[in-house]
């Protein structure tokens, strides 16, 4: 796992956006692999990344016609994705995959989502964020590290954190959500996570310096061969000085990684 430490959320977002652009532009569609498959998150942290991708698309630097997307999780994120990203780029509607949280048969909806990912050849790059309690997508602490797409009950602190987007406060936040599983994310060929702000510092410390545990579902990424975590300085507040020093030195050796 590589950790890239940037001064602030803007620079962290810039790094992630440039990385995604580089990967998509390097992808050459063939008849057997016609699409670059991109996993996408929601939340405040990726918002800036989306606005940078939109800007670069408008400048003609990146197109999304050969990109199939799969959103990580869903309970009311469809409008977020269209507002911040899909409405402003040239994604084919048929290439946009979002879990349908209104489905009457949520179990089948989740199985079919996994099947769709499999049919397009798996995810090339899963871009994600983390919750203050260390959740990834909606895999809350205690989630199986072998989990696949399914319905999850949200933790109380997630309801509190997400209540900022609901006019009716914490009681109006849906208790259940559909989410890809930890194993689904692990099977992506590359995983890029953005984590910014002091409220992510404790989760980040446990994830990077602690062991693999289902109480920190993201920690399973320690076993992923191509995982990159992009953070700002505030998110590193609970890391040991030696950890920060080491990862800063890696960035010096491999600029732009
Ligand atoms: C929600 C989403 C997660 C996201 C998290 C962090 O809970 N389900 O996928 O990573 O929020 O959001 P933010 O970046 O706003 O802190």
UniProtKB/TrEMBL annotation:
One BP annotation, GO: carbohydrate metabolic process
Top-level taxon of the source organism: Eukaryota
Any one Gene Ontology cellular component term annotated for this protein: cytoplasm
Gene Ontology MF terms: glucosamine-6-phosphate deaminase activity; identical protein binding
Signal peptide: none
PROSITE patterns per the UniProt record, alphabetical: GLC_GALNAC_ISOMERASE
UniProt keyword Hydrolase present: yes
Keyword Hydrolase belongs to the record: yes
Database matches in CDD domains: GlcN6P_deaminase
Keywords: Carbohydrate metabolism, Hydrolase
Catalyzed reactions per annotation: alpha-D-glucosamine 6-phosphate + H2O = beta-D-fructose 6-phosphate + NH4(+)
Domain Glucosamine/galactosamine-6-phosphate isomerase: from-to ranges: 8-223
Enzyme Commission no: 3.5.99.6
Record-linked PANTHER family: GLUCOSAMINE-6-PHOSPHATE ISOMERASE (PTHR11280:SF5)
Homology family: Belongs to the glucosamine/galactosamine-6-phosphate isomerase family.
Protein name: Glucosamine-6-phosphate isomerase
């Amino acid at each position: 796992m590589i950790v890239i430490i940037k001064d602030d959320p803007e620079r962290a977002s810039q790094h992630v956006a440039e990385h995604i652009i580089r990967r998509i532009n390097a992808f050459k569609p063939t008849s057997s692999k016609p699409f670059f498959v991109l996993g996408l998150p929601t939340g405040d942290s990726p918002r800036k990344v989306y606005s940078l991708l939109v800007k670069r698309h408008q400048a003609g630097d990146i197109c999304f016609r050969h990109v199939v997307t799969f959103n990580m999780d869903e309970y009311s994120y469809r409008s977020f994705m269209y507002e911040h990203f899909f409405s402003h780029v040239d994604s084919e509607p048929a290439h946009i995959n979002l879990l349908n949280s209104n489905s009457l048969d949520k179990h089948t909806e989740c199985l079919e989502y996994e099947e769709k990912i499999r049919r397009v050849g798996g995810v090339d790059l899963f871009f994600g964020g983390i919750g203050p309690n260390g959740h990834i997508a909606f895999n809350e602490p205690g989630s199986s590290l072998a989990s696949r797409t399914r319905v999850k009950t949200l933790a109380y602190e997630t309801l509190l954190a997400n209540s900022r987007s609901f006019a009716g406060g914490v009681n109006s936040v849906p208790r259940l959500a559909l989410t890809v599983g930890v194993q689904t994310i692990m099977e992506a060929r590359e995983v890029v996570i953005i984590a910014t702000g002091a409220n992510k510092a404790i989760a980040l410390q446990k994830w990077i310096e602690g062991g693999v545990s289902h109480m920190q579902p993201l920690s399973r990424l320690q076993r992923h061969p191509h995982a990159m975590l992009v953070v700002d300085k505030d998110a590193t507040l609970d890391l040991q000085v030696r950890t920060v020093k080491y990862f800063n030195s890696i960035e010096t050796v491999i600029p732009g990684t």
